[in-house]
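Tutorial, part two.
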Amino acid sequence: MKDKIEKSLPVLAMLASAAALVAVFASSPSQTMSQAHASQLADLASRMERLETRFTRSSPLSRFQRDGDSSVAREEERAAGLDIRDIEARQTRLENQLKEYGIIERFEAHQRLVDESYRVALNPDQSPKERLEALNLLRDEGRVDEAVVNSMMDLWDLSVQDEKLGPYHRWALMEGLRGSNDPRFRDNVLSMLQEEPGAKMTGQAIATLEPMLPDPAVTEWLAHLSSNDPEPKIREHAASVLQSAGAPNK
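Running the prediction step on this input gives:
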């Protein structure tokens, strides 16, 4: 464990430094900087942020995040006094060091995995299990877009015809698509509630519907559950969600 931490510290420091350097110039480009160059810096800032997040998540250093934040702040202070050529030179050195540690290679391999997961999620010839696993990765990476949601709704329709595995698939779809406000997704969840799927599935549905508030149809259904569901915990859950959203509980 100690060896892993010692190896990870310099890499994390480099990532923090690189992210801070490019962030300063991406957020406050000089008047002489071309629009194309500013765009490149913005792209690099985003890339370095993803690198830092990915490395921190996979390293034993998450508990040292506060120290990393302080390092970024110090780097931003130093970067504020540099010109664009200094930034470019330091960026090059940092990227070379990141390549030596294999971080760039790992990052690019992960991006290929995400791209492949996107293709799997949209492919109706893949099994539901494979598509749902792909959906989980896309959710974690913020890659759930309209095309993914539409594809998953087709999978939802298929799940209704599968009495054995359908409930598990719908549970996984609600988990993977939580945060989406897609009308078709909303209507499918509400239709499922009409069938009184049981307390566990209803609780999952409430958690899925919560981000859709103050949608009137969602508000109406949660109000119904808060007053009429036979399970006290479900009534309390629905009422709590409505109260948190400032929606009427009636």
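The chain has two domains: 2-101, 144-245. In part three we will examine how such features are distributed along the chain.
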